[in-house]
Amino acid sequence: MSESVAPDAPSVVAKLGAEAVGTFFLVFSVIGTALFAAGFGKGQGGLNVGFLGVAFALGLSVLIGAYAFGPISGGHFNPAVTLGLAAGGRFAWKDVAGYLIAQIVGGVVAAAVLAGILAGGKDGAFAEAQKGGFASTGWGELSPGGYGLGAFFLAEVVTTAIFVTVILAVTGKRGAGNFAPIAIGLTLTVVALVAIPVTNGSFNPARSIATAVFGGGTALGQLWGSIVAPIVGGLIAGFIHKPLFEGVSK
């Protein structure tokens, strides 16, 4: 390699591995909470932590993952975040594809592990989870509140844009430093409380792909929306951040 690299800089393999493992942890934690502890399906979730518990699981998993893997890969764990950071000039476009692949792989493996756990449960546990969409995001029958496509798109675009805007703000020159993961995790918890009743709370195409693989025909049929809407939100946040916030005079 002719270009100079800091001697302790993580390798590409380490960065992609961190993204895969971090996304695995996020999906395993959040979808596991939804399937086993939130009462989303009949006979599931004896603890019944509800939407609040899932929102906290989401925020805490991102907070923990950011501290654990952020120093290696930046702690994206989400294609919408990666694309938003690239649009905001904080991440190289040439590295986007590798991150997206690592995130999707990590998410799908996590969902597969959860499916394996369900398969070892009571008779029909996996079929029951699949019948309920495997906590997949979507509209109509996949929306906990029965919201339609328009509401789904509006909720996912806006909440993802808010989330990525906060990430760009707290990790920037005027940002929160080592406290950034706390702000990011709490932001995700707050927007999840808004979005879960409407969309089941995606903000993350990797998470949506992972659950749709095991969620049945409806989940797969609606997956395009759970990919497009968060990406649109992330790109909006990325493209407007620099002119809106970093272009202000000191």
UniProtKB/TrEMBL annotation:
Which InterPro entries is this protein grouped with? Aquaporin-like, Aquaporin_transptr, MIP, MIP_CS
Q: Where does the record place it?
A: Membrane
The alphabetized UniProt keywords are:
Membrane, Transmembrane, Transmembrane helix, Transport
Keyword Transmembrane appears in the UniProt entry: yes
Family annotation (Gene3D superfamilies): Glycerol uptake facilitator protein (1.20.1080.10)
**A Pfam family per the record:** MIP
* Topological type in the membrane: Multi-pass membrane protein
Transmembrane segments in this chain: where? 20-40, 47-70, 76-93, 100-119, 147-170, 182-203, 223-240
Principal localization reads membrane
**Per the similarity annotation, which family is this?**
Belongs to the MIP/aquaporin (TC 1.A.8) family.
Instruction: Give the protein's recorded name.
Output: Aquaporin
Q: Which organism is it from?
A: Arthrobacter horti
